Amino acid sequence: MPGSQTHITWARSERFVPRAFIRPFLRFSNREASSGLVLVAAAAVAVAWANLWPEAYESLLGTTFRFDFGPLHLTDDLHLLINDGLMAIFFFVVGLEIKRELVVGELRDRRAAALPVIAAVGGMAAPALVYLAIAGASGEAGRGWGIPMATDIAFAIGILSLVGKKVPVGAKLFLLTLAIADDIGAILVIAVFYTAELSMGWLALAGGGLAAVVLAQRVGIRSSAVYVPVAIFIWFATLESGVHATLAGVALGLLTPARPYYDFDEFRAKGRDLMTGLSPEDDDVAERELADYTLLTISEISRESVSPLARIEHRLGNWSSFVVVPLFALANAGVNFQGSSVGEALLGPVGLGVSLGLIVGKIIGITGFTLAAVRLKAGRLPEGVTPRHVLGVATVAGIGFTVSLFIANLAFTDPDLIEDAKVGIFAASIVAALLGWLVLRVGPTRNEEAG
């Protein structure tokens, strides 16, 4: 039909930009390993940049910016704006994921969630203990115990996707649920142990902003034009309070409604009622205007038939994975190896504590707690998942890139200790990825293992 082209969206059209850029990116972004690949590329660029042109790298990150939000003023360098500002978007998406899992996902069923949550506890406790056993609990080095607790879900799921049919679906769900519980643990650690001196006045204002969000939801306000300015204020107040500003993102994510205003049956009924008897003619202006109004109403009902959580996660998911996190890696993964010894950094108390915490601690903690819970009947393994899969998942969980780097910047003020921690994170993440891939790859396929 000649007129059918009008129903093709711009992104699906044969124009040059959608055909050459938009659709290939959408196909790439839908692959499980894609965000991990982009993260690897950003980290590689950061390392190359920091070693080939260190002055330019440091100069760019030190560029100062000033922002004015009415009576509120913020002056910060690019590095801190990325870590305190853009990463709030990342943690907001994390908060959305946690809320979704708690309401409609794996964490909703306590029995199904019990085993991966227990595994996550082991996967946080054991790495911290390994780190403290090597680096000690005293001095500034002792503050780094939270670094090896984190798991980078993008990298971990990417490795599992590369293994393909060797990994049952249950193992992927086990890792996803474990990682969500791990995220909750990391957020609590940041909030409790890596918070600076508190300004109770600003903290009260941040709490007031969150209360305003809850009140607005209770009275039925749905417009983002109300929530976005309030969210910016909450972020700013949290930043000024001394609590790390990214936690404002988590709180807002957890407050986002996970249920739609209309369920599917209501949407279908309302749409059917509105469309009944509507058949406008092109030359009938009144009928055409009525049709336009009706369709706009249906569009609004359609929008409200999707939960705010799902809408926002759909809009921000790729921005977080393909813009925010790579920029964070670009700003934080730039380890300058010139004039320093990688071996010394890796064998120092911080580097060794971080690397062994991520590798040995994760394997011992996750595998040990999981198998013990199964033996004690506190949980059961998903269908098709064997102890070998648990070992492989535990090994892959030792990839602690994004959040580990984030905590390293919070834990230390000494640049040398931050660099040592980064070397440990790099080394552990590479070893964990290769070793986890090997453990999962060398075994039989799912069908062979089941037989």
The gist of it:
The protein has 451 residues and is mostly helical. The protein contains 19 helices and two strands.
Q: CATH topology of the largest domain, what is it called?
A: Na+/H+ antiporter like fold
Low-confidence parts: 1-7
Question: How many separate domains?
Answer: 2
At CATH level 2, the architecture of the largest domain is Up-down Bundle
Structure description:
The structure is a single chain. The protein is an all-alpha fold. The chain folds into two domains: 34-195 and 244-259 and 307-450, Na+/H+ antiporter like domain (Na+/H+ antiporter like fold); 264-303. It is 71% helix and 3% strand. It has 19 helices and two strands. The protein has helices at 16-29, 34-52, 54-61, 78-103, 110-135, 153-163, 169-193, 200-218, 224-241, 246-255, 264-275, 285-304, 308-332, 342-347, 349-375, 387-396, 401-411, 415-441, 446-450; strands spanning 64-69, 72-77. The chain has a two-stranded antiparallel sheet with strand order 1-2. A hairpin with a 2-residue loop joins strand 1 (64-69) and strand 2 (72-77). Helix 5 (110-135) runs antiparallel to helix 15. The protein is globular. The N and C termini lie far apart (53 Å).
Helix-strand layout with pairing:
Layout (H helix, E strand, L loop, with lengths): L15 H14 L4 H19 L1 H8 L2 E6 L2 E6 H26 L6 H26 L17 H11 L5 H25 L6 H19 L5 H18 L4 H10 L8 H12 L9 H20 L3 H25 L9 H6 L1 H27 L11 H10 L4 H11 L3 H27 L4 H5 L1
Antiparallel strand pairs: 1-2
